[in-house]
Write a structure and sequence with these properties.
This protein has 5 helices and no strands. By secondary structure, the chain is mainly α.
Length: 119
């Protein structure tokens, strides 16, 4: 199986597992983990889109500019993934902080009980 196709299939599985976890799991921590899996799947899709077999996107003196421009990998998806990783780490820290506050206030992390207590 080609590497790019395997990446798309893995990303699809991560997104499906994440969506399942978001809607059908009752624990808040597991919902946060599911959301992180969705983010990982999206990152993997972006990397797979930008993947091309060729040279790495670093210009050296041995590689001429026309050959470099036609065979190197596209660097924009890598920059987007790096930005997404930073944003996702910040969001994960905030969500875990909110989960800690919810546990201290209500004594549980089950979302069905939390929804009943907040009504």
């Amino acid at each position: 199986m080609e590497l790019q196709m395997a990446s798309f299939i893995t990303a699809g599985l991560l997104i499906v597992i994440g969506i399942y976890g978001m809607f059908f799991v009752d624990n808040v921590i597991k919902k946060i983990m599911a959301l992180s899996a969705i983010g990982g799947g999206v990152n993997l899709i972006l990397i797979a889109i930008g993947y091309t077999q060729g040279i790495v996107p670093i210009k050296t003196l041995e590689v001429s500019m026309p050959i470099f421009s036609t065979t190197s990998a596209y660097p924009l998806p890598q920059a987007l993934v790096l930005t997404n990783i930073v944003i996702e780490a910040s969001m994960l820290a905030i969500m875990l902080g909110i989960a800690i506050v919810l546990f201290k206030k209500y004594g549980t992390l089950k979302s069905s009980i939390l929804l009943k207590k907040t009504d």
